[in-house]
Amino acid sequence: MKKLIIFSLFLFAVNACFAQDFKADIATAKSSYATGKLADAHFALEQAMQEIDMIVGQEVLKLLPTKIDTLTSNPKEDHVMANVGFVGATIHRSYGLQGNASIEIISNSPMLAGLNAFLNNPLLGGMMRDENTKMVKVQGYKSRLEKQGENANGKTDYSLQVPFNSALLTLTVKGKTESEVLALANSIPMEQVVKLIQ
Amino acid sequence: MKTSFLLCLALAIVALPKQSDAQLLKKLKDKVNKAIAPPPTTTTTTDQTTAGTATDASGKPVNKGGGGLKNTPPPDVNEQIADAEQAHGAAKYSDARYSLQQALIGIELQLGREMLKSLPDPVAGLEKDTLQDKVVSAQWGWSNLTIQRIYTDKKDKQLTVTIGNNGMYSGFVMMYFNNAYGMQANADNQNMKQVKVKGNKAIIQYDDSKGYTLIVPIGQSSMIVWEAINFADETEVMNTANAFDIDGIKKQMGEQ
User: Fold this and answer.
1) Rg (CA), chain A
2) How far is B254 from chain A (nearest CA, A)?
3) How many CA atoms lie within 13 A of B95 on its CB side?
4) A170 to chain B: which residues are within 8 Å by CB?
5) Measured distance CA(B180)–CA(B185) in Å, rounded
6) Tens-level pLDDT at each residue, chain B (256 residues)
7) Which residues of A, range 13-42, sit inside 8 Å of B by Cβ?
8) In this structure, which CATH number among 1.10.3470, 3.40.1000, 3.30.460, 3.40.1340 belongs to the domain B20-34+121-252?
C-alpha cells in the first residue's frame, strides 16, 4: 500500500513536470511566433506535442491493468518513450518475471497507417488465417492473434495485435491457451485507451 | 520473432526500400513530387466535357461538373495555440494534439510563403511562374514541409525547385554519401556523381528523358532539389543552383 501511494505520487510529480514543460514550450512558441521567428515557434510546438504524447503515455499506463491473470506488473519497467521525429510515443508495461507478458502501444504514428494497411491486407498476409495466425475480435476491435512457438510449460506463446488508425496495441503473452490470452486482452480497457492514443 | 520480422518488412516496404543508386534518386524525386500534389482548395467551377455518354462502361454516372472546393485560409496559429492550451488544461489531450498540429500547419504554410518570396527571380533567364507555386504541409506536425517553385521560358526549358523538410528523405541522401560502394565511377556513362553547391555536398544526376536533377541535403532534415529540363549542360545547372541563397534557406528552415 505504501509503495502504491509512493508510486502514485511519483506519477503525479511526473505529470506535473510534463505540464510545466508543456506550458514553457507553448510560451516559447507564442513569443517566437510574435517576433517572426517561425522556425523557433515550429520547434517549440513540436516539443509541446511531444510533451502531450508523454502525458498521454502516462495516462494510458494508469488505465492498463496492474495484474494480468496471476502476473503482476513491473513498475520499474513501465516506460513511455517519445518516438524519433516527433511522431507519437511508445508505451510499455511488462508483467511477471522475465517478461512473461507485456503490453506495448505505439501511439499517434503516421507510419503505422502503412503498417496497419499491411496488417489489414489479406494479400500481404495480414488479417488472414493459417495454422499460426487468425483474426479475432477483442471488445469489438478486429485483431490479429499469432502463435509464436511453444513455451517450456507445453503451452503456446501468443502475440495479439490490435491496429487502430494511427496506433497499434500489442499484447504478448507466454505459455497460455488461446482462450486465456483473449480473456487477458479483454481485461484491457480498450475503448478508454483508444480515446487517449488517437 | 515473426511479428518483429513482419513489422520490419512492412517498415522496410514503407520507409526503407532497397534500391540501386539511380533508382534511389528516382525514388527521392518521386517522393518529393508526391508530397507536393496540388491541394484541393480551388473555387473554380470545372467545365468538364463528357465523352458523349452520361455513364461509364459500368453504368456509373460520369461527373459533369461541380462547385469544386472553397478556398479555406490556413489555420490561425495564435488561435490554435490558445485552443491547445485550453484543451491541455481540461485534460483533453487528443484535442490538444490536434490543435498543435493545426498550429504547426499554419506556421509551415507561412514559412513556405515567405521562403517563396525570398527565392531569386529570374533564374537562368527563366521567369518564375507564380501560378505553380506550392506550399504543402503534412497534418501530422512532424517536419514534412514541401515548397515548390517553377521557372520557365514558356517554351521547353524549365527549372523546378523543391525545398523539403523531411528527415527520412534527407537521411536517404546522406546514406548515399556515406555509402562508398554506391559511387558510380564509369567515366564513359557516368550519370550520377557527387558535387558541391556553395560548399554543400550534393548529388547531380542526368537522364535523357528527364534532364538534370541536383539534390542538396541541408542541415539535419531538409533538402533542396533542382530539376532542370533542357538545360545545356552540367555547368549551367550548377550556375543556376549557385544563384540561390542556400544559407538563407537553411536559416529559414531552422537548420544549421
Assistant:
1) 19
2) 5
3) 11
4) 3
5) 11
6) 444 544 444 444 444 433 344 444 455 555 555 444 444 444 443 444 444 557 888 888 999 888 888 777 888 999 999 999 999 999 999 899 999 999 998 998 898 999 999 999 999 999 999 999 998 876 554 456 789 999 999 999 999 999 987 655 555 555 555 554 445 555 555 678 888 999 998 989 898 888 999 999 887 778 899 999 999 999 999 999 999 999 999 888 777 7
7) 19, 22-23, 26, 29-30, 33, 38-42
8) 3.40.1000
pTM: 0.70
Task: Look up residue B74 and give its DSSP letter.
Answer: P
Say if CB B203 and CB B184 are below 8 A apart: no
Supply the range of the domain harboring residue A51: 1-63
Residue type, B24: L
Nearest chain B CA: its distance from A97 CA (Å): 20
Note whether A185 and A142 are within 8 A (CB): no
